[in-house]
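Interim report, section 4.2 (structural modelling).
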Amino acid sequence: MATQEMEQLVRRDYKEGFVTDIESDTVPPGLDESVIAFISNKKGEPEWMLEWRLKAYQQWLKMTPPSWAHLDYPPIDYQAISYYSAPKRDEDRPQSLDEVDPKLLETYEKLGIPLHERAALAGVAVDAVFDSVSVTTTFKEKLHEAGVIFCAISEAIRDYPELVKQYLGSVVPQGDNYFAALNSAVFTDGSFVFVPEGVTCPMELSTYFRINAANTGQFERTLIICESRAQVSYLEGCTAPMRDENQLHAAVVELVALEDAYIKYSTVQNWYPGDENGKGGIYNFVTKRGDCRGDRSRISWTQVETGSAITWKYPSCVLRGRNSIGEFYSVAVTNGRQQADTGTKMIHIGEGTRSSIISKGISAGRSNQSYRGLVKIGPRAKGARNFTQCDSLLIGDQCGAHTFPYQEIGNSTATVEHEATTSKIGEDQLFYCKSRGISEEDAVSMIVNGFCKDVFQELPMEFAVEAEALLSVTLEGSVG
Amino acid sequence: MMLEVKDLHVTVEGNEILKGLTLTINAGEIHAIMGPNGAGKSTLSAVIAGNEGYEVTAGSITFEGQDVLDMEVEERALAGMLLGFQYPVEIPGVKNIYLLKAALNAQRAARGEAEIPAPEFMKLIKQKIAEMKMDPSFLQRSVNEGFSGGEKKRNEILQMLVLQPKLAMLDEIDSGLDIDAMKVVADGVNSLRAEDRAILLVTHYQRLLDYIVPDRVHVLVDGRIAKSGDAELARELESRGYDWVLEETAA
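Predicted structure of the assembly:
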């Protein structure tokens, strides 16, 4: 596999070296079967993959965008979007941090992002910044020794077609929902992870390592498979704001956990939320679902959502295996004019399945936030248990928080608990901190971080530290 | 002089609570404000600390020559005025030790000093927590969350010991304490006594003053200081109650 990786790198250089006409690497706006064929061809995909995409497209054509979410945005013109553009070549990127927007750099500073990561995040030509090849290679060798496959989804389609065929769409079918169908038709980027039986992945996997040279995909597709007794912790995203010109993002993430497997998936999302009037921000319509297929398997979603103008996202668990466990820990922060409709679905199918949901929503400015959660207990899920705790914190008096819990209990032996609170950040708490000499902004961030503690402790250590800093930056100027 | 309050008038939700209060406190002194319920005792310390619910309609407060009413709440704290609350608020999820460190570092930053190194901070905090006879586990608990009344009061004094204010204001620090807890709190306050520090005690009961002997005692009646004296006055109030002061004032 090391050789394969080397070839990949070489091929990439080769390809970029010979691309002279940028125009030919971008399709004009609009979506039809020829665009999908173009994408599939660009990615060097086999025939079956193109057919799979076209089937998704046919289903998408018959669908309508969901309207049940507590979100308000103008209709999206899907024919006005360009569905493929090649990653920017190094010559077209900023050559050093000096060429990057100082405001962006200021934010990196506040977040304490390491210097070499700042450059990569700001889209600076990677070779000009750090020796990405050696970092990546060491990393890949270690994984290779353990037998773990971690690569771009398009590589996996070419190099591991049998695995992809077996699992792609097995958790989120092509026609699952409007955005998932669109993604299935046009996805161009994303991660593929395969951890074989009995292997604990020797390191935390992060998209940061994988994307080094490429830009973030608009329609990412991620597939993670853990065989029996395998374990992996996957980190998606970054606390730093990502440069991105695409307004619509519709990702699909599928997780498959076989017997006794454990997948921990952590996300920190900080995309551009738009200006103070909410203009220009990212629309984030994501389908994330984990399938606890094997007995005693466990899938854990932890997310910190602070960016995007609109977030529509419900990482879910299908608890099929007996005694399998699903977990959802979420902190969502909205400020300015951001809107978020987010939550989870826990579908209990197997006997003795357990799920816990801890959701912390913080609304500031004129933002609006909804928690939407479904707990469904099937007739065969004897002794299933769910615990849901859903807390909202309001900062100021122009924001909104809403809770929509749904429960479908098809089994009398199930135990389902739901706790919800809504509180305003207390004037008396603020006064107490300030009367100890702590500035208002520090006090707010301290109180908010305290509110989120239960979720932050689920994050991998470094992520948690960054997440705390991120919260303070997001809420800057939200009080007073 | 350290603190000078002149002809202070304060209203809360349209009701005048302080009606021309005048008071001077020098460094090294302990002053006790006593008085019947509803006389406005707690209002004074709350206004000095900068609580927003109080509107100053006339008068002035000066601390080491600075106009206090012109300062933000946190500026007042950083200048050295610290209020120990009667009912300290709970802050879920925020560790006690974290609040202490943030407050101490805010103070250091205001003085242009670097953040306190972790080992130095741990040494300091261990010493202070032992002085307050508190279990070290307190440091890891959320600020005031699930603390008993006595624990909250000890925690307020602990903050004073760590932050070493120039003017320590303690609002009914004795309320709800049993005698043992009160002794610990009183010991803590007495250890704060210093030539360059002033302490302002607000209390309803004389018994606290058996343990913390004040230099000056002021009786607050109907928004004004009706009578001032030394520690002896507090004992007189204990045996005779407040009525005679009220009568004297009315006369």
